[in-house]
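Give me structure tokens for this 291-residue protein.
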Amino acid sequence: MDLGAFTGGLLTGLREGVEAALIIAIILAYLAKTGNRRYFGRIWLGAGVAVAMSVIAGTALLMTVGGFEEPYEQIFEGATMLLAAGVVTWMLFWMRRQAATVGGELRSSVDRALTEGGAWALSLLAFTAVIREGLETALFLVGQAQAAGTDDGGALSVLLGAVTGLILAVGIGWLVYTGTRRVNLSAFFKWTGVALIFIAAGLLSYAVHEFIEAGLITIGTETAFDISAILPHHEGIGLFLRAIFGYTSTPEWATLIAWIAYIAIVLPLYLRPLPPRRPAPAGEAAPAPGT
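Here you go.
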């Protein structure tokens, strides 16, 4: 098993899985508190359909990889990794903005579903809440699996790690639902978000490398440095770092600049303090999560 690829998959599955598990836990807890446990089945139905669709989408995308001839294979892989890095970056900043109010907004959505749209609207609410996380996770994991490769079992390690992370996420969701233990979700999302920023930077630099291989990028293709004798990326710690953060001991200038630029821009923006949110005017409905 590739430990680096496994760890990268675990971080992704845990982070994304906790977001979805938290949403479902809040909905279930609110239904239980308001005496609407009879609607639990609708929630599980909506969430289950979303999970199944995410698995199908991820499997289809993963099976497509490698079905092209050069240079189209490199272009497709590079585009997939670039899209994955973009999606996870958007997701991190959206969740950062919404974390403080997501509970109240979800409860408002449940109230509207029960009073206006009928009980089956709860299935749609759960489906909508989970499908966004599921598709993001599928896309991001496919990008990581491509970067890890299949020759040494890297892709399988990514998937095993993701499954482990998702199982842990379900456990955290159960703890949130039962309330038997306090989970510092703010710190959890902050530091796993930082880890995912470095993972996304690795995907971005790997995408640039693939575009260089395909001939789409012709500037900055020279090797910036070679430290293979000190920390090669094909074995040991270097292989671990490559699987998680896209490390390479022989980066091109373009890939190195892309990695540094992404970290230098995204990390400070993510860690900067958020301005206080203004309360919604009286009578104005709170926006649904994700809007």
